[in-house]
Every structure is written in C-alpha cells, then in structure tokens.
C-alpha cells in the first residue's frame, strides 16, 4: 500500500533528520535538518487527510526556518561547522532522560486501550475546522489572534533598542525620523 | 467545472513551463537586442546559445563551500516551480486539484526562499551571503501582501480549491472585481521570481549576488529555473484573477495558454522598463502601504460576498 | 562529432571586462564591439569565459587580474586591449583561443593537477580561510565583521579604484580608498581637448549615466545609453542620434522609481565642487541636464570635472559609504563616478 | 494500528526534541529542541483526532493552537536572544544563568563566549574569499584588522586564500 510506504519513509526520515539537528556541526545544516523534519511530518499530516493543516505546517515552517537561519548565523559561533566543536552540557544525563521518556511514552501508547473511532471524518476537514473556529471555538481564534498580536509588539520592543524618542527627537517634533538607514516613505 | 488530468500530464507541466520560460527568456533577449540597436529577432536564439555556453563551462569547486546545500539550493528553484504549477488548471483540468490548492501554491512558492538562501550561503562568498539576505528581506516584504491577495481571491470564491476559484469567475473576472489584489499579485509575482525590478538578490551591484560563484550547469539550472518559476507564477494569475480557461470560440486550454503568455509578456515588459527596487526602501512600502491596501481589499471582497 | 566543440561554436562568449587606469578609450572600443556582436558582459568571473583587460599593464593591477583569471572556470581565454585600435583583433584572437578545444582541455588538465597538488588540509584555518572577528556595530549587537574589497576588478566600477571595506551583514562599517596602478602624468580620456561639437562632454555624461543605471539595476536603459554614447563619439555625422537621445532622456528622466532609489544617498555639502553637491538624485539630474543641453545642436556643454573634482570625490567617498548598505554604497560610488584617470597617483590624506 | 504508529512517531520526535532542549547550550539550539517537541504534539493531536473522534473538530483546533504556540515561541525566543545578546553578549543558556541571581554576573559576558570557541567560522570564509581574490583586492589588507578583534588569530579575516579560489574546476 502506497500510503503506508510513504508514511514509513516520512516517519523514519522525520526522526532521523530530527536527530541530525543535534549531530551536525554546521548551524546552517542543523536548520535545514530541522526544516526537513518539519516537512516530512507535514507530509505525514497530509496523509491523515488534514490537507489544510499539513500544507500550513509546510508553508509556515519554511518561512520560520529561514528566519531562524538568519539568527543562527548572527548569534552562533562557528555557524558553518568548519571547526569541529561541541556545545552541549550534560550529554549523558539528557540522553538518559529522553530515552526514559521515550520508553514511557511508547509503553503508554502500546498498553493504553485506545477508544474505537466514533463517527467518520468530515468530507472536508478544512471546512470543519473553519466552522469550528468561527463558531463554537471562536474564543480560541480570538485568543490566538490576541496572543499573536501581543507577541509581535512584545518581540519588537524586546529586540529593538531605538524607540520613538530616538527617532523623532525628545519632544517628538522631528518631521523625518533620524534612522541609520531610512525607509522608503520617510516616516 | 474542474477535472483531474491523467497521470502522464505530470510530464506536461514541466514541458509547458519550460516552453513558456524559454519564451520569456527570448522576449527579454529580444527587448535587449532592440535596446542595443540590433535586430530583435536575434533574441530568439539567445537563450539557447547561452545554454550551450553554460553546458560546456566547467563547474567550480571552491574551498570552504557547503556543497550539499549549495547544489540543493540551485536544484530547488525549478522543482518548486513545477510543484507549485501542479494545481494550475489548463482549461478545466489540472494535474491535481486539492481542496487547499491556493495554500499549496503559496507553500511551494516559499520554498524558493530556502533555495536562494542555501545558494548564497553554500558558496561561501560575501556576495552570495548578502544576496541571500536580500532575498529573505524581499520575501518578508512581499509575502504578507501576497498572501492577502491570494486570500481575497479565495474569499471571493468561498473556497481554497483552484477549480472553485475559476468557477466563481463565470460572471466577472476577479481582476475586475478586486483590482488591488490583482496588482499586488503581479508585484509579488515579480518579487518571488526575483526578476526585473526585484532582481537585486542576483543583482549586478553584487556581481551576481547568490549566483556570483555559480558557473556551468549550476548557473544554467538557476537561470532556467528562474524563468520557469516566472512562468509558473504568471500561469497562476490566470485561474486566480483572469477567469481561467473561460473565453469565446477557442477551447479552454488555449485560452489558459494565451492568458498566461499575456501575463508573462507584461511581466517581461515591466522588467525591461523599470529600474531595480531597493529593498531597504520597499520594505516600508510593503508593510505600511501594501498590507493595509490588501486588507481593505479583503474587507471589500467580504462585504461583496455577503451582499451578493 | 565533437559535442563540446559544436556547443562552443554556438555559444555566445561572455567577457568579464576589467579596466585599468588609462584604459577608458580601450574600454569604450571593447564595449562597443561586445554590444555590436550581441555579447553580454559577465557579472562575475565565475560567469565569464573571456577576461578582457582594457588599458596599460601595471604590476599592482596585474596581480589582481591574475587572481581573477584563476577564477574563470574554463573554457577560458584572455585578452589585453592596450589601445582602442587593438580591440577588434584582440577579441577575435581570444574567441579563437576559446574555440581551440584541444588547448582548453590541456589547460583544464593542468589546472586540475595543480589544484590536487595544492590541496593541503589546514587544521587551524578550515579550507585555508582565516576566521572572522567581531566588532561594534550600529545596532549594538557586535556581530561578525568581514573584510570585503570592492574593486579594482568589479563590473561597472571606476577604473583602478579600490575600496577596502569592513562590513557587518551588508552594512559598510569602515572604508579606505586607494587607486591601483594610477600614476602621475597620465592623460584623462574625458579631459582630452574637445574638438568635435561638444559630443565628448555629452558622451562622458552618458558614460557616467550608463554606469549608474547598470548599478541601479536597469540594464536596458544602460545599454541604450552605451549605444548613444558610442554614436556620439563617432567622428562622422550622426543622423537621428539627437532624436534618440531625447527619447532616451525622456524615458529615464521620467522614472520616479529611479529617483526614489537615489534620493538621500551620498549627500555632499555645499563646500564641495558644484559637480558633486547634493545627493545622488541631484547628481543624476545634473548629468541628465548636461545630456539634455548637448542633445540639441547648440554650444558645447561644460567640460566634465577636472582632477580636483575627482580628487575631492575620492576624499569624500569613505565618509559617504560608511553606515550604508552595499547596494547604497555602490550607488554612491556610481553617482560620484570619479574620473580616476585625471587624479594621477593618489594617496588618501593621513588620518582618514 | 495506524494510531499507535503515529503516536510512536510523535513520541520519538518528542524525545529527540527533549534531548536537544536539555543538552544544548546555545539558546537557538534549545529552541530547535522545543520546536521538535511542539511538532510532536501536532502529530499526536492530528492522529488522535482522526482515529478517535473525527466528527468533533477539537483535534484540529488543538493543532492550530500548537502551530501558533510554535510561532510565538520562536518570535519571543529570538527577541529575548537579541535583547540578551545586546545587553550581555551572551547566547548560551549557562551564561544567562545569573539572571536567576545565584551566580555573579562577571566573567560571562564580554567576548569570552565567542572567543573560546573558535570563532564564527563561516563568516570568515565569507569574508575570506568573497572578494578580495575575487574581484582583485589586496592581499595585505588584513593587517589593518582592528585591535578589538579578540585573539590575534582572527585579525585578518578577509585576506587569505587567493590562490585557492577557483583553481579547481572539475569536469
């Protein structure tokens, strides 16, 4: 069966590239390994019939990883991995903890008697999702929107060291902002 | 309205895209020849002769390159173009018409971000790296307006399926109904194909930018991939805004090709007539002007859908 | 049949044109032939198969040129055009070298062998490259700083100019100007006496304009400017050129996008010579004005700036590009377009 | 049976992410670990939705929330990293431990964090051969490397290696 084969390839590939993230020396390659892991899980989600969420994961992760790549290069030492080095602490402990967690989870997954499926998947899951977040679960949508907006503002405030007083002068009377490099609209 | 094509059509997509892309390259060369004072006809063979040169040219090995990412990046550009084009209907049939076709197109088109950045990074050169950064900021500037333009079309049709978007334009084309979204789509089409005025990631002032260290087949793949990608985004404008294969007399697939060629010709002509847009200036325009404009466009479309 | 040779004969060569100080005349001749044959100039050595050096040889420039030569991937050929008359023959010879498949194969094998011989892994410097250091920057992030040398072998760049910069990301943090291969007593091509109806002054402005247009990413307009420049420099009568010049000027002069891109870049105060004052958009408008007055058969336009203007431009350059992005820095250089041939030997003032 | 397979995939991704989040020193790498864990949640939620209660949309909504959480985590993570880096020149979690006020704040900031580790390798590369050799620069310009550059061995990042570049085409 094609679906099973595709899923097997995706699952193994996703875990393998997830491991690769913490194995490769080069930060650029680590970023793209993470991206590969996300893309493969995106395909796995597509196999479940969740076409919108699967494609959304792919779309979002490509953009997010590209932004991440920039920060990797900015802040990481040795981003190309040209000089072999390790940046880990307590490797054995982490390995043990995560190994135990995996075994526990796996045991739970195998042992728990999962309930039988109730009902059938909707013909168009995207429509079902849209009706849910615009209907019964609208609170979720509103919260998500608010959180995203708050994140934008907070992240910008944290990341920048120039406020409007630097830009428009102490009494905010400057007509054109005093930026190191001006924008296209002079504002 | 829409159907799904037989499997062999998967091969037809790249073939058509290559033909259209060659046309765009030849058109560019013809306009160039005219500007140089030569006969425009000589432009028709120029892309083929350039390909011949690049096929003979040797590939380069440079110390300190990230060869895996470098080669992968170049190959991704045409691959992303073909994948994005899979959902574009030719007439009334597409290779695949998933229920989220518009989002699929968007996701595949974003892959070019990764491709160009890998190319710039992998070559281990300042020019390439700066070119890669430039394309990222270009992406961050055009992507939101572009997404809202797509949203407007999807909203007008009430569906993310490309076939439904075409079907919704039986009365009036979306280019007429939502002109701002159409214009923004054309601008972002130029930007995502890093072509013409948005070609600074591979610009002359950076000695070729992300392509500065490429030679031979690698360069051929990137250059050809860029034209193929331009053809794909031009082709997507047809089902989204220009009524798909609708038109009198001729069959639907001919109309699709004619309209695609028209959009492509417009993009090529714009690339000929406009100087490069500097990204440090355009970013502010993108966020302060284009995002609100497209948001208002989406609002207008929403009201129209409600009162219709 | 021999596929490589067959493809090579059909390929259009792509020359990487480098100008040394004193080579403007040769460059114009080469650019003219390149344009007439439908060739295109390469953007980088990696893209090129011909290295065309315009101008007299000098030791400093030759060292840089040898490095560029080593970067041509091959098949490759090299041409030196010392004087305008030699251009056609030199390019024909280089093209013939390019088509000599057997010789190209020998060259490739020799390079492969020497590359293998030179390969020596170095533990401290991966790939033989030293590591980047860090430094203060304008955003207070202390990021990596890279050394980037702009010129002398860069397309659309003043002959012999070398701008050694320290950049972070793509922002220029430090810049030092020097001239490679410049010597006192060399004659400027554009400064030569103008015997032919003001055509030379207009051509000089057009040459500056085409360079700025190339850097500003408008290749089509730049190409037209080169064609008109070549027409103006022709000794005989030039029917129709005036009308075409007006059309071209109308097209580029109307472009608001271009003015928007140039606005606010490289602002020079009123103390400087008049040719340099204002920002890049002002200088661009002045060139257009000069082209405009000369496109009508009237009095010859003012001669382009002499040695003092060029020298002032070089002195101002470091301060104008520091804090700018690479794209802006290149536009600033193109908008000043210092006539490096007029300057003679140049040493920046001590302390800069 | 498919449900268990999907959940095992999720468990594996979660464990790998947990390992990364626990073992890595760099803030950005820790974030990569966290993202893998959120990714595992997405897979698990999607599979549970499909195989237990596909008629209720809650599973899908949970996936949407997880995707949002990922975006928020990344945006805030980078903002905090930038702020930390600007204020303290720190990008390692250990070095930021004094934020919790049980370590002195000396000793960690400064250039040490980077200098210890062999520098920003690639950049050098970029500087290194991007251009000088390329468009013909000067071999000697490294000697004006600024004194702030720690450790003299990276004083002249931009200069070297003219000879190598480009001399090895391959067929």
List the helices and strands and how they pair.
The complex is a heterotetramer of chains A (187), B (308), C (352) and D (171).
Chain A: H1 2-21, H2 27-47, H3 51-75, H4 91-111, H5 125-134, H6 138-159, H7 164-168
Helix pairs in contact in A: 1-2, 2-3
Chain B: E1 3-4, H1 9-35, H2 46-56, E2 59-61, H3 67-85, E3 93-94, H4 101-122, H5 126-157, H6 162-167, H7 174-177, H8 179-192, H9 216-241, H10 252-273, H11 279-307
Parallel strand pairs in B: 1-3
Chain D: H1 2-23, H2 27-52, H3 58-88, H4 112-115, H5 121-130, E1 168-170
What's a quick, concise take on this entry?
Chain A has 7 helices and no strands. Chain A has 187 residues and is an all-alpha fold.
List keywords for this structure.
heterotetramer, A: 187 residues, mainly alpha, 2 domains, 7 helices, 66% helix, extended, C: 352 residues, alpha/beta, Rossmann fold, Cytochrome-c3 Hydrogenase, chain B, 3-stranded parallel sheet, 13 helices
Q: Could you describe the 3D structure shown?
A:
The complex is a heterotetramer of chains A (187), B (308), C (352) and D (171). Chain A is built from seven helices and no strands. Chain A is mainly alpha-helical and 187 residues long. Chain A has two domains: 80 residues; 57 residues, no CATH class. In chain A, α1 packs antiparallel against α2 and α2 runs antiparallel to α3. Chain A is extended, with a radius of gyration of 23 Å. The model of chain A has no long low-confidence stretch (mean pLDDT 83). Chain B has one domain. A two-stranded parallel sheet of chain B has the order 1-3. Helices cover 47% and strands 12% of the residues of chain C. In chain C, the strands form two sheets. In chain C, strands 4-5-6-7 form a four-stranded antiparallel beta sheet. The radius of gyration of chain C is 21 Å and the shape is globular. The interface between A and D is large, with 89 and 78 residues.
């Amino acid at each position: 069966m094609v679906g099973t084969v595709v899923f097997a390839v995706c699952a193994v590939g996703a875990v393998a590239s997830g491991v690769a993230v913490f194995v490769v020396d080069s930060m650029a390659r680590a970023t793209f390994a993470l991206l590969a892991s996300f893309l493969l899980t995106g395909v796995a989600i597509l196999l479940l019939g969740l076409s919108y969420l699967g494609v959304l994961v792919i779309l979002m992760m490509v953009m997010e990883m590209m932004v991440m790549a920039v920060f990797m290069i900015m802040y990481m030492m040795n981003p190309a991995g040209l000089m072999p080095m390790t940046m880990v602490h307590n490797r054995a402990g982490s390995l043990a903890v995560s190994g135990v967690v995996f075994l526990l989870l796996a045991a739970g997954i195998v042992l728990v008697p999962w309930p039988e499926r109730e009902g059938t998947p909707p013909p168009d899951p995207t429509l079902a999702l849209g009706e849910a977040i615009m209907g019964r679960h609208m609170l979720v949508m509103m919260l998500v929107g608010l959180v995203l907006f708050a994140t934008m503002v907070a992240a910008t405030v944290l990341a920048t060291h120039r406020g409007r007083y630097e830009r428009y002068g102490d009494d905010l009377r400057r007509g054109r902002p005093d930026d190191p490099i001006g924008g296209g609209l002079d504002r | 309205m829409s159907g799904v094509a037989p499997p062999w059509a998967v091969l037809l997509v790249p073939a058509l895209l290559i033909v259209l892309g060659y046309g765009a390259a030849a058109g560019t060369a013809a306009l160039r020849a005219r500007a140089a004072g030569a006969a425009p006809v000589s432009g028709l063979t120029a892309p083929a002769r350039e390909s011949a040169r690049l096929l003979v040219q040797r590939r380069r090995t440079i110390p300190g390159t990230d060869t895996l990412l470098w080669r992968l990046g170049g190959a991704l550009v045409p691959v992303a173009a073909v994948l994005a084009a899979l959902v574009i209907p030719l007439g009334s049939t597409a290779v695949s018409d998933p229920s989220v076709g518009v989002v699929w197109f968007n996701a595949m088109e974003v892959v070019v971000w990764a491709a160009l950045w890998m190319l710039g990074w992998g070559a281990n050169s300042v020019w390439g790296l700066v070119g890669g950064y430039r394309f990222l900021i270009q992406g961050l500037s055009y992507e939101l307006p572009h997404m809202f333009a797509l949203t407007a079309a999807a909203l007008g049709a009430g569906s993310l399926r490309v076939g439904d978007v075409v079907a919704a334009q039986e009365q009036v084309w979306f280019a007429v109904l939502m002109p701002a979204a159409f214009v923004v789509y054309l601008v972002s089409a130029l930007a995502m194909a890093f072509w013409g005025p948005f070609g600074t990631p591979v610009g002359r002032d950076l000695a070729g930018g992300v392509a500065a260290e490429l030679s031979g087949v690698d360069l051929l793949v990137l250059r050809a991939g860029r034209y193929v990608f331009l053809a794909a985004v031009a082709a997507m404008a047809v089902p989204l805004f220009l009524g798909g294969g609708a038109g009198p007399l001729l069959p639907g697939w001919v109309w699709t090709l004619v309209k695609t060629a028209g959009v492509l010709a417009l993009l090529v002509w714009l690339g000929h007539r406009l100087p490069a847009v500097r990204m440090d200036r355009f970013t502010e325009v993108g966020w302060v002007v284009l995002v609100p404009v497209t948001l208002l466009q989406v609002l207008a479309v929403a009201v129209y859908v409600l009162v219709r | 049949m021999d596929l490589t040779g067959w493809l090579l004969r059909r390929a259009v060569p792509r020359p990487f044109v480098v100008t040394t100080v004193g080579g403007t005349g040769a460059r114009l001749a080469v650019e003219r032939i390149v344009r007439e044959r439908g060739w295109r100039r390469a953007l980088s050595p990696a893209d090129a198969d011909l290295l065309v050096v315009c101008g007299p040889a000098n030791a400093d420039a030759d060292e840089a040129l040898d490095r560029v030569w080593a970067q041509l991937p091959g098949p490759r050929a090299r041409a030196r055009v010392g004087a305008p008359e030699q251009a056609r023959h030199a390019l024909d010879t280089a093209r013939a070298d390019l088509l000599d498949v057997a010789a190209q194969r020998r060259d490739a094998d020799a390079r492969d062998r020497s590359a293998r011989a030179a390969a020596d892994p170095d533990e401290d410097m991966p790939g033989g490259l030293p590591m980047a250091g860090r430094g203060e920057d304008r955003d207070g992030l202390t990021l990596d700083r890279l050394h980037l040398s702009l010129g002398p072998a860069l397309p659309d760049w003043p002959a012999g100019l070398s701008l050694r910069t320290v950049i972070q990301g793509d922002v220029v943090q430090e810049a030092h100007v020097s001239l490679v291969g410049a010597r006192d007593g060399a004659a400027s091509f554009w400064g030569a006496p103008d015997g032919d109806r003001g055509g030379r002054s207009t051509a000089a402005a057009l040459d500056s304009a085409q360079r700025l247009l190339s850097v500003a990413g408008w290749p089509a307009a730049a190409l037209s400017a080169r064609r008109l420049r070549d027409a103006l420099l022709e000794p005989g009568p030039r029917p129709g050129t005036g009308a075409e010049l007006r059309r071209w000027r109308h097209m580029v002069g109307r472009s608001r996008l271009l003015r928007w891109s140039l606005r606010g870049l490289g602002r020079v105060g009123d103390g400087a010579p008049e040719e340099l004052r204002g920002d890049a958009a002002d200088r661009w408008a002045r060139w257009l004005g000069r082209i405009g007055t000369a496109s009508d058969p009237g009095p010859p336009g003012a001669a382009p700036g002499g040695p003092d203007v060029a020298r002032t431009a070089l002195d101002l350059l470091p301060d104008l590009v520091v804090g700018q992005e690479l794209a802006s820095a290149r536009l600033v250089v193109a908008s000043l377009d210092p006539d490096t041939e007029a300057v003679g030997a140049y040493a920046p003032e001590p302390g800069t | 049976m498919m449900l268990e397979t999907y959940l095992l995939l999720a468990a594996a991704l979660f464990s790998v992410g947990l390992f990364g989040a626990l073992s890595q020193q760099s803030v950005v790498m820790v974030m990569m670990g966290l993202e893998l864990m959120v990714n595992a949640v997405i897979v698990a939620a999607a599979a549970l939705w499909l195989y237990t209660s596909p008629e209720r949309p809650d599973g899908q909504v949970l996936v949407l929330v997880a995707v949002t959480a990922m975006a928020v985590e990344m945006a805030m993570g980078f903002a905090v990293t930038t702020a930390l880096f600007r204020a303290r020149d720190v990008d390692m979690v250990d070095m930021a431990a004094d934020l919790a006020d049980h370590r002195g704040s000396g000793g960690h900031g400064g250039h040490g964090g980077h200098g210890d580790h062999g520098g920003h390798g690639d950049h050098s590369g970029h500087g290194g051969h991007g251009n000088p050799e390329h468009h013909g620069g000067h071999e000697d310009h490294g000697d004006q490397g600024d004194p702030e550059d720690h450790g003299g061995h990276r004083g002249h990042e931009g200069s070297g290696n003219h000879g190598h570049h480009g001399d090895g085409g391959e067929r």
